[in-house]
Amino acid sequence: MDGGGLKRRVRDFWNENPCGVVYAGGESRRAYYDGQARTRYELEPYIRAFARFEEGHDKDVLEVGIGMGADHLEWANARPRSLTGIDLTLMAVEHTKERFELQGFTPCVFVADAEWLPFRDASFDIVYSWGVLHHSPDTAKGVEEVSRVLRPGGRARIMLYHKRSITGLLLWLRYGLMAGRPFRSWSEIYSHHLESPGTKAFTVEEARRMFSRFRHVEISLRLSIGDLLEGAAGQRHGGEFLRLMRGLWPRWLMRRFCRRFGLCMLIEAVK
Ligand SMILES: C[S@@+](CC[C@H](N)C(=O)[O-])C[C@H]1O[C@@H](n2cnc3c(N)ncnc32)[C@H](O)[C@@H]1O
């Protein structure tokens, strides 16, 4: 399939399944969004630690792939000089607009493609993107665009999926080994069974190569809710195997010894 066909499928997927919507709920629309944000930061406390939203104060900040807008609101609360958000889907833009309007803000968010950012070179001090570029067919082009729109000395904070992860192992057990296809590659399994069609995961070396145009790059790994089988992780896979694994999963052991097999690869890069 060409990149355009795949991108349409990616857009359709996220329009139908906005990221994090399973955690939203409550009596009012405000409670709906507050509940989603609360659960998000409880389950993934490393998001705040990595993003360092407060550093957005008085800066020009761009978020690529806003989803339901929880992080975008955190950036807004830091009172940046300017805040801009884009997403491939109208659904994400509408959720973020509603979330902001309920707080009395009007956001600058619109539909755009991470691979073709509609901004001039050197427009932003911070570009943030959590769990987005690995869904886009040409992730390297997205990284190039992040670098292009950053000012010299500006910072990119990007989360991409890490290939050698416990999530990858679980998916391989389920869709490789238990499906009688043990030689199926992990790339194919991620592409078909982890979120939107064509999703990719990268080794640390591959990520370093993609970010080689940056002056300084720091990469660290975190266990995701998928690796720990927490929250709604694995919901779409269902089945007895998963139910059993959730009950038996030795989370404390993983937190202690398996951090380098986390799905979340946190990349901080200075242009
Ligand atoms: C897993 S969600 C993450 C959303 C948000 N950052 C979060 O953490 O909740 C992935 C998001 O990336 C968006 N996305 C995928 N490909 C994109 C592209 N090429 N350009 C912009 N957004 C894209 C999807 O529409 C979706 O909202």
SSE map:
Blueprint: H1 3-16, H2 29-43, H3 46-51, E1 60-64, H4 70-77, E2 82-87, H5 90-101, E3 109-111, E4 124-130, H6 139-149, E5 150-161, H7 166-177, H8 186-193, H9 204-210, E6 216-222, H10 225-228, H11 239-248, H12 251-257, E7 264-270
Parallel strand pairs: 1-2, 1-4, 2-3, 4-5
Antiparallel strand pairs: 5-7, 6-7
Bound molecules: S-adenosylmethionine (SAM).
State the total count of DSSP E strands.
7
Report the helical percentage: 40-55%
Q: Might you state the CATH topology name?
A: Rossmann fold
Radius of gyration: 18 Å
Number of helices: 12
SSE order, one letter for each helix or strand? HHHEHEHEEHEHHHEHHHE
- Bound ligands: S-adenosylmethionine
C-alpha termini separation? 33 Å
Beta-strand percentage range = 15-25%
* Count of discrete structural domains: 1
Helix/strand/pairing class, anyone? alpha/beta
Described by the principal axes of the CA atoms, the overall outline is globular
Q: Kindly report the spatial arrangement of strands forming the biggest sheet.
A: 3-2-1-4-5-7-6
* Integer average pLDDT: 93
> CATH homologous superfamily, by name?
Vaccinia Virus protein VP39
CATH first level: Alpha Beta
CATH architecture tag: 3-Layer(aba) Sandwich
